[in-house]
Amino acid sequence: MKNCYQHALAWVIYTLFIFFIFNWVSDSLSAFIRVFSIISIQMVVFYSNLKWILPVYYHTKRYLTYVVINLVFVIFGAILGEYLEERTPIYQSEALEVQQYYTEKGLINGEYDENTLELFDIEQLFSHAMPIVLIIFISYFMYNFHMRKQEEAKVLAIITAEKNFLVQQINPHFLFNTLNNIYSLTHKTSPKGSKAVLQLSKMLDYSLYIMKEGRVSLKDEIGYINNFIALFKLKDSAMNKIAFEYSNANPNQKIAPLLLIPFVENAFKHGDIADVKNGFVTIKIKTEHDFLLFDCINSYQEKKNVDKTGGIGIANVSRRLELLYPEQHELKIEEAENVFSISLKIKANGL
Q1: 44, 76, 184, 325: which has the highest count of C-beta atoms within 10 A?
Q2: CATH number assigned to the domain comprising residue 201
Q3: Listed range (26-30, 150-154, 288-292) with the worst mean pLDDT
Q4: Which H, E and C letters describe the chain, residue by residue?
Q5: Is 180 a member of any domain?
Q6: Looking at per-residue confidence, does 285 or 61 come out higher?
């Protein structure tokens, strides 16, 4: 409906503008007839192209048919425009003056205007054809602009759906792993079970809240990671080689929600932190100039067995980075000598 109003307004303004020009050089009736012929022909050509010719022939790459149909429009429209113009009072008056002039000179039509009249008619037809050609080009550009907007909207919808899917995929994965830990605690009638449930409740509350937000503060994201670490430590208090450094991070900086936790989860899940002697996890977050810097390093064992649902976290967050921060991030993943490291840099203006 909005487009209908816009089109109607554009045609009204265009019509008034053309009428003002013709009325300036001729009488009102002649101006009305000429404007009516021009606008009616242009509207037919414009909407025929926009709604039929371009979608049916141009869009399907039947270019020859597209050109031929529009050529017919131009020729027919020019002839019709010339025919209607000849019925205007000012045209008939001018024709009468020309006839009187040559009569006074003692000339007859067959002697004076065979070539002149032909040239005159071609020029007139050309003048009527040009507005039709112009409207064909306008319809062409509007159609392509509309198709581009539709394609962009389609891509945006796909990206939005994919982002939501990726976020939703990360959360159930984490919930699955955590519930397994809580089950093992309560199964042994450990008093840590109730504390673990409370810790998980806080994390789920945050997860549900941030699903409505496009960006969250770095402070909230750091708090979520701290809760995750605390919940993991409930499994074994001897796991003390876990370092989380964020003193140089700007707590008010904005970041996409749950962007860093998959890296942290991967470090605990696939690393060998349970090896009290050799296992370790080191996490660092800081902001520096125009960048957010994140590092996660953990020890691991190549032959460590993990459940079949593992491994989706990093793949998902990598895809999210491509969608949320295109050309505004650097992600490096390295592994050597039983050490797995992730380094992420995100440009501040992309946060």
Answers
A1: 325
A2: 3.30.565.10
A3: 26-30
A4: CHHHHHHHHHHHHHHHHHHHHHHHHCCHHHHHHHHHHHHHHHHHHHHHHHHHHHHHHHCCCCHHHHHHHHHHHHHHHHHHHHHHHCCCHHHHHHHHHHHHHHHHCCCCHHHHCHHHHHHHHHHHHHHHHHHHHHHHHHHHHHHHHHHHHHHHHHHHHHHHHHHHHHHHHHHHHHHHHHHHHHHHHHHCCCCHHHHHHHHHHHHHHHHHHHCCCCCEEHHHHHHHHHHHHHHHHCCCCCCCCEEEECCCCCCCCEECCCCCHHHHHHHHHHECCCCCCCCCEEEEEEEECCEEEEEEEEEECCCCCCCCCCCHHHHHHHHHHHHHCCCCEEEEEEEECCEEEEEEEEEHHHC
A5: no
A6: 285
